[in-house]
Amino acid sequence: MLTSPSNEVIDPTKNTTVYNCMDFPMSYYWIASSHNTYLEGDQLTGKATLESYIRCFKMGGKCVEIDIWDGPDGEPRVTHGHTLTSTLKFYDVVRTIRDYAFIRNKNPVILSLENHCSHVQQEKMTNYFKSLLGDMIATPTHLNSNLVKSLDRLLSPNELAGKILIKGNVVEQGDTTGKVTQSLSNLTYLKSGGSADDLVSANDSMAAYEMISVSEDSLSKLNQSDLTAFNRRHFTRTYPKGTRFDSSNYDPMPGWNGGAQLVALNYQTSSTPMWLNFGRFRDNGESGYVLKPSYLLGGERPPSATLQLSVQIYSARQIPKHGKVPVNPSVAVAVYGATADNKTTQTFVVNNNGFNPYWEEQAVFAVTMPDLAIALFEIKDGARTIAHYALPVPCIRPGYRIVPLRDDNEKVIFMCNLLCEFKFQWLAA
């Protein structure tokens, strides 16, 4: 059955099974992460909804963001401050997280807090966390004498299964003058507030639960070797620059290539960065956690051989129309990974045929670091992408396979797929 689901391009042993060892420290994994999770639409006038959190969890997200501000009625609110976006009650957001955080699996969930509240409303935040989440909250390692070892390394996903880790600013014990209350600080598992300057200067002195956050602009200026070394033991969260008012996304590959665990993206925006994100996390049973390659964890670089990936593009079927207008499809195939491996090819255009267009064209890619590489397939109609699919290069099965195409909501398009032949060959250096 050439076009049956059992013949899809992705290796089912990697797509449907958690095959990575989940006993390493949390810092050893890429983790599916969302930016401004509460928003639908843009960053200035967009609507904040509980459904945005539910959608993110259902799509495999394992790190969500909560921006909290003082509410005029004494109740903390979730919103994008100093904009015209709508608001949510913090209580309702936490209740939704309780109900949906583990809908896909029991891997730990991280709550990234942007806390702008007064001490009075922070006390309410703390009470809601305790009353709604209870034992789901992971005990901060620096407050638990039984987990002192985690000052040197983070606990593993297995050790933290079913737990929620709160990320935010903290204060020293007994400090009542800081911006964060002691009670909220005592619930905070991952200490944020570090900057890019800490990559080298404080790497050895920082406890494992201390982390940094960097914007896409700052990320582009960092030394890759320093970033990789830092991320063996600590977390780094990357996020879009503040001028992306339209909720567009940045290229996630540089962050992942540097070992950053939390590459946070706007899940509401369907475009290449999010397609790559879904491709990255189709690995390891779609669990939201993927073990980073050994050479990002201190192991040796792979041997200097190149993997040649050949894709023979034959045909597609059932490409959806844009209204009643016939489509003129072409196929774009790209590999994203190490800078030297990035390449895009595109077939010729088949006019007025979305039913069963035929190309029989070949695309060849030389991949020097396959463990970083993601293949992206797009059905194009002019400049518009009609359908897409992405997956890690190591998850591709050789032979004649179908590529199950997706729409902008990452839903499978019924009976719409691409028939290709895949071949691999190792080339000597």
Topology readout:
Layout: H1 12-15, E1 29-31, E2 33-34, E3 39-40, E4 47-48, H2 50-58, E5 63-69, E6 77-78, E7 88-89, H3 90-100, E8 109-115, H4 119-133, E9 164-168, H5 182-185, E10 188-194, H6 198-201, E11 210-215, H7 216-219, H8 224-230, E12 236-239, H9 253-257, E13 262-265, H10 272-280, E14 289-291, E15 306-317, E16 329-336, E17 343-346, E18 358-367, E19 374-381, E20 384-392, E21 399-406, E22 412-427
Parallel strand pairs: 2-13, 5-8, 8-9, 9-10, 10-11, 11-12, 12-13
Antiparallel strand pairs: 1-14, 3-4, 5-6, 6-7, 15-18, 15-22, 16-17, 16-19, 19-20, 21-22
Written overview of the protein:
There is one protein chain. It is built from ten helices and 22 strands. 17% of the residues lie in helices and 31% in strands. Mean pLDDT is 93; it is low at 145-150. By secondary structure, it is α/β, with parallel strands linked by helices. Helix 5 links the parallel strand 9 (164-168) and strand 10 (188-194).
Helix content: 10-25%
Q: What's the β-strand tally?
A: 22
Strand arrangement, largest sheet? 2-13-12-11-10-9-8-5-6-7
**Structural classification:** alpha/beta
- How confident overall, as mean pLDDT? 93
Uncertain residue ranges: 145-150
How many H/I helices? 10
How would you describe the shape? globular
Q: Give the end-to-end Cα distance, rounded to a whole number of Å.
A: 38 Å
Q: Main beta sheet: strand number and arrangement?
A: 10 strands, mixed
Beta strand % = 25-35%
Q: Give Rg in angstroms.
A: 22 Å
